[in-house]
Amino acid sequence: MTVISGIRQNNFIIIGRAGMDFYADPPGTKTEEATHFFSCLGGSSANIGAAITRHGGKAALVTSVSDDAIGRFALNELRRYEVDATHVKSVGGEARNSLAVIESKVEDHQSVIYRNGAADFEMTVEDVSAVDYGSYGALITTGTVFAAEPSRSAAFHAFDLAREAGLPLIFDLDYRPYSWPSPEVASEVYSRAGALCDVIIGNDLEFGFMAGGIDKGLDKARELAATTAEIVIYKMGEEGAITITRDDEFRTGVYSVTALKPTGAGDSFMGGFIASMAAGHDLRTSVLRGSACAAIVVTRVGCAPAMPTTAELEDFLAEHPGPTEP
Question: Which of 88, 207, 231, 301 is buried most, with the most CB atoms less than 10 Å from its CB?
Answer without folding.
Answer: 207
